[in-house]
Amino acid sequence: MSGRPRARRTPLPYGLVLPAAALLLLALGYPLGRQVVLSLQDFGLAQQFGQPPDWVGLDNYTQLVSDPYTWQVVLRTVVFCFVNAGLTFGIGLGIALLMTRMHGIVRVATQVGLLVAWAMPVVAALTVWQFLFDTEYGVVNWLLTRAGGDFDHHSWLLHPLSFYAVATLVVVWMSVPFVVFTLYAGLTQVPEDVLEAAEIDGAGAWQRFVHVVLPAVRPVLLVVGLLQVIWDLRVFTQIYTLQKAGGVTHDTNLLGTYIYALGIKGGHFGTAAAAAMFMLVLTVALTAPYIRMMLRQEED
Q: What is the pTM of this model?
């Protein structure tokens, strides 16, 4: 009894993938390895001028973990991340759903407006937002004062709570267009015949959304949620610029600006590298549930 001939294995696929894998390993592996080594050293300003660094092992990590301020920054970062990711995701999904109901001209105008907001450079956008919330000449203070509020010369960036409110407004405004475009593309792929069949069977609008639309676009939702958590966890430019515009750095630091303050401003590059590794571990821990759901979705 002769069995089916086995397919002949060829090294060609591995040869095609190997160069790209090697470049990816070099581009990501070397900086990560260098970061790990730096986090285990006492690397300061003297080492910038050629003095050999001292090997301190886990002392940098111990210093970070034993500092209560580090945990304050971590808590702020996690809360800020999930608040911004949740708001961005919710607003983006709502606008994407509205766009599926819009007339062609209105939808195009909405897409153009979102694209302009998305394409605006970060520094230029932050300059506009700083002007809106300026203490002396801000439009927001002027409008709220005219409405009867006591906001004359009010400083939005001086107090941490209002600082994060402004930062959240800026971050969400800059992130929503990506979520809208991505989710709208996914929503347009939901089969119309399935929606019509569900409507004929008596399913209401909410039931069709929960039982038909959401399962159909679930892979897109997971990817967008994963990316949004990563981006909001690593936010830096918006926080740093608002701090320079009047925010109290110590009370408004997130992990990104804290690492910058340790390394570039403080000259403690070893400690900053350890904080960066801590941020990497935190990112992996927060995104692991999304990755597991994505893998489970692929298996299903």
A: 0.84
